[in-house]
Inverse folding.
């Protein structure tokens, strides 16, 4: 217990110091207070690209933990719109306003938030260029670019998405609104089909949750309509038994699940599979995915021509030094899902490491990350999957801690309430 | 690169206790893995349990009960098994030292 007490005291001292520095009453003195935030000279400039679960969390924790550190967050959208919970909007159980948050609290914390598009990363000169020509210099760069789509793998998909006839709804925002509108316009008796790509893709349980939400809407409002789940995979990829139970218990006669149903081509309202054509009034295609365009143009993609390899102690790219990459864009450690929750955890590992690297200190050798994904199977009943991942120094990767990986015993309303609270807490943890 | 080499050297030594003793931020970093649900620094919102300001021994015993199954849970019986007892003690001490409200 003595050891613990010592650590406890040390932690408390450190927190108090950070708190005072943020409040502008630092004990180090005001010399070199160039940034107007905190006291003492800045320990460095960090640019964070992407204001989602990874990037926003990194920006916030750099300020919370780093004291006097210059943090600039570049995000193309004026507000954050959450993918988690967006299926509730698709089903009609939440509004867009419920899944939208601003960046004002981050600004108040001293993060410089710039709305813009990063067009190039010059890792040699340590600067990023924005559309319009602005350049931002950095000592360390954190990129949380998310995913982009490999539309070229499915015939006719790019044109169908461009025309708006087909939606993906896999980046929350206008696509979420468009999908909801298509469902509302659908006459009773119509068919909704969702195409799921082969793994890996963002949010493994997401497509099955969406199928449930659309089926729940149909059950209430359009009982003669059907949901067709066209899965390129041989089976449900997350919480399998729980989703199967939900399909049978709540949506029998409404929802049909088809494994090994890989989409080959989109032609009008027809989804062409290998051996059959499926006609759908609303066709929702979740396209195959890779790390986002910025990762590709910056030379960060170095695994399977799709994903970014990282050093798990620092989240630094294994391709481009000085650039740390978070979230869905990374090539995952074993059983590590592409989720907003995990991106938030990546961000904390990166924030801690970047601060220590800027200070010339050793980075933590024993990081831990964990994941929780809640999925709604009805408007109120929820199931979860969770896991804790401990760093393995020998294999230099995160590994799932024995016993920590599991799912709900069954769908239940208690977890329905926890899921909403999870969203509230994680959005606040990333944005303040 | 020096820092990085140093980190690797620490790993290479291989004694987790020795590494942890030199990692002043370990408790803070571990506690941050809980923040997605329990709020930044354990200051939770909504229906999640606030951990900030809760006595350390109480947190340790709660987690132990989740691990053993003595305390039924929706999810904590799984998550609690992902952390070592030593890690839980660090996390508990960190949360105990946080102000209960922002």
């Amino acid at each position: 217990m003595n050891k613990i007490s010592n650590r406890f005291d040390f932690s408390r001292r450190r927190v108090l110091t950070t708190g005072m520095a943020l409040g502008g009453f630092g004990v180090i003195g005001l010399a070199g207070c160039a940034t107007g935030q905190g006291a003492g000279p800045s320990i460095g400039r960090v640019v964070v690209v992407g204001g989602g679960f990874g990037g926003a969390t990194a920006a916030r924790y750099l300020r919370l933990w780093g004291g006097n550190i210059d943090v600039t967050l570049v995000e193309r959208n004026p507000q954050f719109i959450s993918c988690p919970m967006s299926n509730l909007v698709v089903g009609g159980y939440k509004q867009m306003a419920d899944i939208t948050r601003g960046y004002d609290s981050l600004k108040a914390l001293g993060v410089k938030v710039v709305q813009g598009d990063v067009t190039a990363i010059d890792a040699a000169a340590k600067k990023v260029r924005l559309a319009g020509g602005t350049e931002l210099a950095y000592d360390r760069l954190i990129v949380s670019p998310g995913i982009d789509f490999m539309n070229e793998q499915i015939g006719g998909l790019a044109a169908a998405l461009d025309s708006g006839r087909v939606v993906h709804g896999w980046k929350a925002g206008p696509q979420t609104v468009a999908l909801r509108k298509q469902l509302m316009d659908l006459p009773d008796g119509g068919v909704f089909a969702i195409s799921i790509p082969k793994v890996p893709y963002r949010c493994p349980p997401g497509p099955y949750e969406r199928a449930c939400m659309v089926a729940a809407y149909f059950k209430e409002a359009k009982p003669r309509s059907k949901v067709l789940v066209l899965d390129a995979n041989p089976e449900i990829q997350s919480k399998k038994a729980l989703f199967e139970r939900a399909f049978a218990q709540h949506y029998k006669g409404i929802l049909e699940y088809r494994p090994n149903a890989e989409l080959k081509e989109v032609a009008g309202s027809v989804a062409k599979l290998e051996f059959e054509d499926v006609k759908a009034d609303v066709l929702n295609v979740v396209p195959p995915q890779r790390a986002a365009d910025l990762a590709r143009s910056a030379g960060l993609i170095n695994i399977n021509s799709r994903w970014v390899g990282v050093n798990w102690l620092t989240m630094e790219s294994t391709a481009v030094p000085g650039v740390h990459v978070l979230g869905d864009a990374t090539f995952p450690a074993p059983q590590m899902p592409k989720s907003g929750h995990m991106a938030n955890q990546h961000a904390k590992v990166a924030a801690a490491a970047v601060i220590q690297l800027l200070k010339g200190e050793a980075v933590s050798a024993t990081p831990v990350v964990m994941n929780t994904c809640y999925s709604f199977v009805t408007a109120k009943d929820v199931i979860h999957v969770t896991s804790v991942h401990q760093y393995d120094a020998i294999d230099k990767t995160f590994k799932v801690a024995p016993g920590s990986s599991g799912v709900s015993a069954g769908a239940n309303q208690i977890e329905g309430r926890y899921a909403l609270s999870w969203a509230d807490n994680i959005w606040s943890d990333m944005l303040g | 690169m020096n820092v990085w080499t140093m980190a690797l050297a620490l790993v290479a030594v291989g004694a987790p206790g020795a590494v942890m003793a030199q990692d002043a931020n370990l408790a803070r970093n571990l506690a941050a893995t809980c923040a997605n649900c329990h709020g930044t620094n354990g200051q939770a919102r909504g229906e999640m349990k606030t951990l900030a300001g809760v006595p350390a021994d109480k947190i340790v015993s709660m987690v132990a009960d989740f691990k053993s199954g003595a305390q039924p849970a929706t999810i904590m019986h799984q998550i609690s098994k992902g952390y070592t007892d030593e890690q839980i003690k660090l996390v508990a001490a960190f949360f105990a030292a946080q102000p209960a409200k922002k």
Summary: Chain A has eleven helices and 27 strands. Chain A touches chain B through 63 residues (CB under 8 Å). The first helix of chain A runs from residue 2 to 23. The mean pLDDT of chain A is 92.
